Amino acid sequence: MIIWGFTTPKNFGPVRKIQCNNCNSETNWFLEKITSWLMLLFIPLVPYKTRYLLKCPECKNCLELQKEEFEELREIIKSSESDRSWDACARVNSIVNGAGGVIRTQTQLNFIRDIQEFERERERRSEK
């Protein structure tokens, strides 16, 4: 019995906070490699397709990456968090933006939180 389409995901850890276009959550997205296998008698024999993804942990929305981008992000993740250089962070941002992700600075996130708090306060006052 030959079966195809069996997949094995491998998670390489969080990359950075990205706003999901699907669920609008701002969470650490994970770098993931998914390999599809051709199987014979339920034994994976030949990998026939590999996908490289950045994945939202909340809704499982994915951004497709090229193999080179994936390898570069994996090397950056391997390096210690404290050892990340400005160039490495800029490269992560470039790859994520190129794949369609939305990255915001801490100042932008604080501004958005302040606006949301202001809107909640205004709604609460209008209800009275």
From TrEMBL:
Source species, domain of life: Bacteria
InterPro entries: Zinc_ribbon_15 (IPR031493)
Domain Zinc-ribbon: 18-67
UniProt name for this protein: Zinc-ribbon 15 domain-containing protein
Species the sequence originates in: Acetivibrio thermocellus (strain ATCC 27405 / DSM 1237 / JCM 9322 / NBRC 103400 / NCIMB 10682 / NRRL B-4536 / VPI 7372)
Lineage, highest ranks first: Bacteria, Bacillati, Bacillota, Clostridia, Eubacteriales
